[in-house]
Amino acid sequence: MPLEAGRRTSPASKQLPQTRATDRADIQRLANRFDVSLPENQRKLEAAEQLAELADPAGISLIELAIAFALRHPAVTCAIIGPRTMEHLQSQLPAAGVTLTDDMLARIDEIVAPGVTINPEDGGWVSPALKPTARRR
Q1: What is the pLDDT of residues 83-109, one digit of tens each?
Q2: Would you call 36 exposed, middle or buried from its count of C-beta atoms within 10 A (0-12, 13-18, 19+)?
Q3: What is the mean pLDDT of residues 63-69?
Q4: Which parts of the chain fold into alpha helices (H)?
Q5: What's the distance, CA 80 to chain centroid?
Q6: Is the dihedral of CA 39, 45, 46, 51 positive or negative?
Q7: Burial class (CB in 10 A: 0-12, 13-18, 19+), 124
Q8: Which of 8, 20, 61, 93 is deepest in the core (most CB within 10 A)?
Q9: Contact predicate 54/104, CB 8 Å
Q10: Is the pLDDT of residue 61 over 60?
């Protein structure tokens, strides 16, 4: 954690605190999400390439495929997109008009089976406050 809840910026602190083992584990976990030498991440890159090959003949971009896939799910009421520039936004808006065929959805499921996270490190962030070492009892 860059600021560690203000401990690093506090005028009272004379030195930086030692990095806890749990912090180091979190840092390593984050690093493992992006290490392209790991087989799990190689598999993610292969899946992305296969998905791009699926999108191309349909005349849509990979981002349009991804957003349309999310919107097709019956439990999804909206896709929260995160454009940082106007160009990003303009590239994402056409996805609202994309309809994925059942064949395309079946092929997506072949590439990445439903409910599978290719790299377990992508499973999400867990608050350090919820880890066993931080609990009161």
Answers
A1: 999 999 999 999 999 999 999 999 999
A2: exposed
A3: 96
A4: 21-34, 39-58, 62-72, 86-92, 102-111
A5: 13
A6: positive
A7: exposed
A8: 61
A9: yes
A10: yes
Tokens of 29: 């976990």
- Rounded to the nearest integer, the mean pLDDT of the chain is 83
Tell me the two tokens of residue 104.
């395309």
98 closest CA partner among 83, 118, 79:
79
Which pLDDT tens digit goes with each residue over 8-31?
A: 444 554 554 555 666 788 788 888
DSSP 94: G
CA distance 67 to 78: 10
pLDDT at 2 over 70: no
Q: What is this structure's pTM?
A: 0.70
The span from the CA of 115 to the CA of 61, in Å, is 23
Nearest to 47 by CA among 110, 134, 102: 110
